[in-house]
Design goal:
12 helices; 4-stranded mixed sheet; 6-stranded antiparallel sheet; globular
């Protein structure tokens, strides 16, 4: 089988993608042929030499690199199936795509839509599920509609910030509704890019300006004195048949993050090796673990997720209320990332996880091919 791993991307999480993709590549069965396509920060696609694949297999600590050879620019032919990706008019012959792309243009439904138009199987959520999980405001609205608790929030759109009188009124209403401190973050960004905590009006204004550098919508949330618990989920929630174990929706053993920083920000996640303590399983009761797993599956099904997602929760330390924080449809996939580690704790080892996701991608593609598209 020819498996194409696409990585990098026009995203604030470009560098994290290089690390995730390298881990994925090392754990794909050697029975398969691996094709590497690197997307630079301007959004151009480049086929990588086989030597890059061989290099990361030998150097287990190295991220993938992107060589921008203009003679190896990749073109996409919509509707061509396995021949959709080509270089200089020659097909790359891809059986399935494994996108290792985080954040904007990677897990927001845009590239998933391209794969759909190309008519090729791919790992992960569909365009609509990817877009919903990426947009924190819209995801909260859908989850609230089925009774899943979310942290109290308001959403500010750019037009509010551009009108001074409306902006001041908005801040006052937000202060009255949520109170300080608050967390401010872009609606559609990941890895805590542009996220910060505000303890007063001045800090709130600075935080809002920072968040608007990353998105045109900003989420402002009530600060919860909370524990952070995460849960890995796999499966095809829409096409799963009762006799098909490959596509079954499964929630794995939840893990807990104990940050040593003010909150689990980008620096704590990726730059400070002591930025957080990771506990698997989470230090909660068996009943609490089952509640997290059931809620994670319910949220996954509500948003029609497929392939994989990491579902993140807050547990209020004072009231013990469980809130669903967000759903990440293409979570970090490094060897030390929480998603594969939680699966591993449940007995699903990294190479088997990779194969499961590939099998699910092909199963969902086959199910969709049976649908009628014209009379």
């Amino acid at each position: 089988m020819n498996i194409c791993v696409i990585y990098g991307g026009k995203s604030g999480e470009h560098e994290i993608s290089l690390i995730s993709a390298a881990s994925i590549v090392r754990n794909i069965s050697k029975e398969n042929k691996v094709i590497l396509i690197g997307i630079n920060k301007e959004g151009k696609w480049y086929l990588q030499d086989q030597s890059e694949y061989e290099r990361v297999l030998k150097d287990e600590s190295s991220p993938l690199k992107i060589t921008e050879d203009q003679a190896k620019l990749v073109t996409v032919i919509p509707g061509a199936g396995k021949d959709s990706f080509a270089v200089n008019g020659k097909s790359l012959s891809v059986d399935v795509v494994f996108p290792a792309l985080h954040g904007t243009y990677g897990e927001d439904g845009t590239i998933q839509g391209l794969f759909e138009m190309a008519d090729i199987p791919y790992v992960g959520c569909t365009p609509i599920a990817s877009a919903l999980t990426m947009d924190k405001e819209k995801a909260k609205m859908v989850l609230q509609s089925v009774g899943i608790p979310v942290v109290p929030y308001v959403c500010m759109k750019r037009h509010v910030m551009l009108n001074s009188s409306v902006y001041d009124d908005f801040l006052e209403a937000t202060e009255n509704e949520l109170g300080y401190p608050m967390f401010v973050k872009p609606c559609c960004a990941g890895s805590s890019n542009g996220a910060s905590k505000a303890k007063n009006r001045k800090e709130l204004s600075f935080a809002i300006m920072e968040a608007f550098l990353w998105d045109d919508k900003v989420l402002i949330e009530k600060s919860i004195n909370a524990r952070e618990v995460e849960c890995s989920v796999t499966g095809n929630s829409v096409t799963f048949a009762s006799d098909n174990s490959v596509e079954e929706v499964v929630a794995y053993i939840p893990g807990e993050i104990k940050p040593t920083h003010t909150f689990y920000d980008f620096d704590a996640k990726y730059n400070d090796k002591n930025g957080a303590e990771l506990l698997i399983p989470a230090d909660i009761s068996e009943e609490g673990i089952e509640k997290i797993r059931k809620t994670a599956c319910a949220a996954y099904r509500t948003l029609d997720c497929t392939g994989l997602s990491r579902v993140d929760f807050f547990i209020d330390k004072d009231t013990h209320q469980v809130y669903l924080n967000e759903i990440n449809s293409l979570p970090g996939f490094t060897s030390i990332s929480m998603f594969p580690k939680m699966c591993d704790a449940a007995g699903l080892k990294y190479p088997q996880l990779i194969q499961l996701l590939i099998d699910q991608a092909i199963a969902r593609y086959k199910a969709k091919k049976e649908l009628q598209t014209s009379r």
